Amino acid sequence: MQTKRYSILFALMLSAFSALGPFTVDMYLSSLPRMAADFGTNASTIQMSLTAGLLGLGVGQLVTGPISDVYGRRRPLIISMLLYLLASLACAFSPGVGIFIALRFIQGFVASAGLVISRAIVRDRYSGVEMVRFMALLTIISNIAPLVSPTAGSLVTTFTSWIGVFVFLGLLGLFLSGMTMWGIKESLPVERRVPGSLAEVLRNYGALLRNRSFMGFALVNGILFAGVFAYVAGTPFIYQNMYGISPLFSVLFALNGLGIILGSQFVKRLAGRMDERRIFRIGLLLAFVAAAVILIEVLAHGPFFALFLAIFLFAASIGIVGPISFTLAMESQGHIAGSAAAILGSLQFALGAVASPLVGLAGENAAWPFGVTIFMTSMLASVAYVILVKRPAPAAQFN
């Protein structure tokens, strides 16, 4: 019981760092129109700050991951959280929109340390079934953040302006700095760290990119997660413009987030009782079937309930595949867990950035690009599994 309580507390602590991503991206979204007016610019320009933040989150992981392999997890995390505090406050008092966009990139860049290093810490401390269970628990807790961050932003702006949102994010960075100093112990001993040369970093990335099994699980994870970005970008228009359910949109959006949590809970219950790869295949099959139903529904403009249920099941499949694909990808990468976690995280953002614009190719009143995009993510994820994981080269087998 004490170990279980410790695991939940430890997962809560690491989830706080993972929450930096959604809080950095989502918390100020409701303030964008007001910010455009305050900066004297248009909507498309102020929306570039969102792109800059996402780009920072993606690029930053590729840098901070290897740094944590060289210098350990704790010190880079403390420095990054202190820089996040400064970047957030600088965003709050930015004198112009151009500087604000640049600061948003920096804010996303340093926030990425929370995402990538928290995952590397998991690999340092756990392996096998224990890592599957802990990642499932971490996924359950972490997925609460995207559900509450937009609401938290709206709540802050009822008392203050958008400036208060970034002051709040700065205080969050200060809190995480303190939590790292007094609550997180170093998980990577000096003897397990890698040399700090650029050549060594590039060699490590090259070794990971050549590892068929690692890249197979990483691509499945990233491609399917791109479906989440497509869902986030497409459902506001489909639910509200095509099905006319504007009053219930936020509730339905939250329920689909609950699907990811339930999928992760499914993994947590079955880990140790069923082979991880079998659970993984169940999740991948569920994603394919749900995506096929989504495509059929949008092409036929079927009943809303059937579409919503299919999207809910697709979200649940993400909750199943995500923790296990991460575990199986990271299992043999203990010495370079930071670099491995960086590739896993950056692929999600990179592929998500590709998928998001595709859903709007035919305009805001057409749903077929959304259905095609979701279906293609499930199909390409399945192809990546078959080619790279199911039939790996002998050298890529797990130890």
TrEMBL record:
* Major facilitator superfamily (MFS) profile domain ranges (all copies): 7-397
Q: Which GO terms describe its biological process?
A: xenobiotic detoxification by transmembrane export across the plasma membrane
**Compartment(s) where it occurs, according to its Swiss-Prot or TrEMBL record:** Cell membrane
Signal peptide positions on this chain: none
Q: Which InterPro entries match?
A: Efflux_drug-R_Bcr/CmlA (IPR004812), MFS (IPR011701), MFS_dom (IPR020846), MFS_trans_sf (IPR036259), Sugar_transporter_CS (IPR005829)
Q: Which superkingdom heads the taxonomic lineage of this protein's source?
A: Bacteria
Keyword Cell membrane present in the record's keywords: the answer is yes
List UniProt keywords, sorted A-Z.
Answer: Cell membrane, Membrane, Transmembrane, Transmembrane helix, Transport
GO MF terms here are: xenobiotic transmembrane transporter activity
Q: Which GO terms describe its cellular component?
A: plasma membrane
| CDD domains on file | MFS_MdfA_MDR_like (cd17320)
Give the bilayer topology.
Multi-pass membrane protein
Classify the main location: membrane
> For this UniProt entry, which segments traverse the membrane?
46-65, 77-95, 101-122, 134-156, 162-184, 213-233, 245-267, 279-299, 305-328, 340-360, 366-388
State the family it belongs to: Belongs to the major facilitator superfamily. Bcr/CmlA family.
PANTHER family associated with the record: MAJOR FACILITATOR SUPERFAMILY, POLYAMINE TRANSPORTER 2-RELATED
Q: What is this protein called?
A: Bcr/CflA family efflux transporter
Annotated source species: Paenibacillus lycopersici
Ranked from the top, the taxonomy reads:
Bacteria, Bacillati, Bacillota, Bacilli, Bacillales
